[in-house]
Design a protein that fits this description.
There is one protein chain. Strands 21, 22, 23, 25, 27, 28, 29 and 31 form an eight-stranded mixed beta sheet that branches. This protein folds into three domains: 22-157, Immunoglobulin-like; 165-271, Cupredoxins -  blue copper proteins (Immunoglobulin-like); 299-427, Cupredoxins -  blue copper proteins (Immunoglobulin-like, Sandwich). By secondary structure, it is mainly β. It has helices spanning 22-25, 142-145, 414-418; strands at 46-54, 60-62, 71-74, 78-85, 95-97, 121-127, 132-137, 151-157, 165-174, 177-180, 183-184, 186-188, 196-203, 209-214, 218-223, 226-227, 239-241, 246-252, 259-262, 268-271, 304-317, 320-327, 330-331, 338-340, 345-352, 358-362, 367-372, 375-376, 383-384, 386-389, 394-400, 406-411, 422-427. β27 (367-372) and β28 (375-376) form a beta hairpin. It binds CU-O-CU linkage and copper (II) ion (CU). The site of CU-O-CU linkage (C2O) has 10 residues, from β5 and β32. This is Multicopper oxidase family protein. GO terms for molecular function: copper ion binding; oxidoreductase activity. Keywords: Copper, Membrane, Metal-binding, Oxidoreductase, Transmembrane, Transmembrane helix.
Length: 428
């Protein structure tokens, strides 16, 4: 393997090369190095050391647990995480999914850093600018390391103390068993009558997740770490959380003290012994949910327009013949980079005629949904970093290019990323 280049998708095996990583050294001419990394000096407000290990059962842990420790910070704080690789022979990195960090902290092996080899460590430093629910996971051989547990939750709260219960609901399927915060079946939710519960649902699996609350009226207050404007009651409906995506739900505990959050397959958080309610058939559509609010930029003034058309075709990937995912008809790595300049307003049409759903994840940015299948979004601005694009669906999205570097934009069904569904957004 050649230092600083890709081998397969970056989800696959990246090198341990000694050369400088691509994002730091090349391809970002004219930009200062400072814009590419987090603050190099200053005392961190939150300091965490995470030691990655692979067990003999093939499971990965961080500091001995999976999910790894929940990291909490307050908006504006400087977070410093030291990743130590104990014995992961493939190497390991940490990517801060949904946090728009400077490029050098993004944790993508083969793009922004080399994978951390056994016995070595890497320090990530970044300021958390936006309150919200996020997660972290390895971005080296991610399709295996994430599936087998190398991830954890990252919660950024507002500086003002919110009353009530603030509960992470991290959902992952281990060997066919769905778990919430690492536990299968029902676990206790410690909340009593009158308390407000904020449930931060994080889908760390490869496919969409159905979630519903019963026993109390509930609302969606945030999607992918971004606030929903004037959300309405969605009692009797369920929501779908995109693979890699997060949805924050709130409800007030009823006088009975009994309510529950179900994530399917018998896994749930249960307060007061609430009995299981049937799964609602109606699903909330984020396209129309909440009310309109300012975007902060004008998508009509786009300075770049891109197509990101997902298909499937025969060809070779890493020398292997097969049916691979294509982007605009090209197979990885022969997919032209999407080139932008700082300050661009970017519109992208994401189409999918590949026969499967793809949870598309753009690093380093939040984008807003403009339309789906030609139908304009009319609800609260639907900001996202992870978006399910179904077969035969077309989304029009927009974002501001305000975070220089080289970013991957890939399917978060991580096996699909290995099988070619990965592109790059690069700043000139
Ligand atoms: Cu959560 Cu590139 O991934
Ligand atoms: Cu996919």
């Amino acid at each position: 393997l050649i230092p600083g280049t890709y081998d397969m998708a970056t989800m696959g095996y990246a090198d341990f090369g000694g050369g400088p990583a691509v994002g730091h050294a090349h391809g970002t001419g004219g930009l200062s190095v400072d814009t590419l990394t987090g603050p190099s000096s200053g005392k961190p407000d939150v300091t965490v050391v995470l030691t990655a290990r692979r067990g003999s059962n093939g499971r990965y842990t961080l500091n001995g647990t999976s999910p790894g420790p929940e990291i909490r910070a307050v908006k504006g704080q400087l977070v410093q995480v030291t990743l130590v690789n104990d014995n992961v022979s493939d190497g390991v990195t940490l990517h801060w999914h949904g946090v728009d960090v400077p490029n050098g902290e993004d944790g993508v092996a083969g793009v922004t850093q080399d994978a951390v080899r056994p016995g070595a460590s890497f320090v990530y430093r970044f300021t958390v600018q936006d309150a919200g629910t996020y997660w972290y996971h390895s971005h080296q051989v991610g399709h295996e390391q994430v599936r087998q547990g190398l991830f954890g939750a990252l919660v950024v709260t507002e500086p003002v103390f919110a009353e009530g219960i603030d509960q992470v609901v991290q959902v992952h399927t281990f060997d066919g068993r769905r778990t919430v915060n690492g536990r299968a079946g029902e676990s206790a939710l410690d909340a009593h009558a009158g308390q407000t519960v904020r449930a931060r649902v994080i889908n760390t699996d490869a496919g969409p997740l159905r979630v519903w609350v019963s026993g109390a009226p509930y609302r969606i207050v945030a999607i992918d770490g971004r606030i929903v404007h004037e959300p309405s009651d969605i009692t009797g409906k369920s929501i779908i959380v995109t693979a890699g995506g997060r949805v924050d739900l709130t409800f007030e505990m009823p006088a009975s003290g009994a309510a529950r959050v179900d994530v399917g397959a018998g896994a749930a958080l249960v307060a007061g012994g609430a009995a299981a309610a049937p799964e609602p058939t109606e699903v909330v559509d984020f396209l129309t949910y909440g009310t309109r609010a300012e975007l902060g930029f004008d998508p009509a003034k786009a300075t770049r327009n891109f197509d990101y058309r997902i298909g499937r075709r025969a060809g070779f990937l890493d020398g292997k013949p097969g049916l691979w995912w294509s982007i605009n008809g090209h197979l990885f790595p022969d997919v032209p980079m999407f080139m932008v300049a700082t300050g661009d307003i970017v519109r992208m049409t994401i189409g999918n005629t590949s026969g499967e759903v793809h949870p598309m994840h753009l690093h380093g940015h939040h984008a807003v949904v403009l339309s789906r299948n030609g139908v304009a979004a009319t609800g609260s601005p639907w900001w996202f970093d992870s978006l399910d694009v179904g077969d035969d669906e077309t989304y029009e999205i927009a974002f501001v290019a305000d975070n220089p570097g080289i970013w991957v934009d890939h399917c978060h069904n991580l096996q699909h990323a290995v099988d070619g569904l990965l592109a790059h957004l690069a700043y000139t």
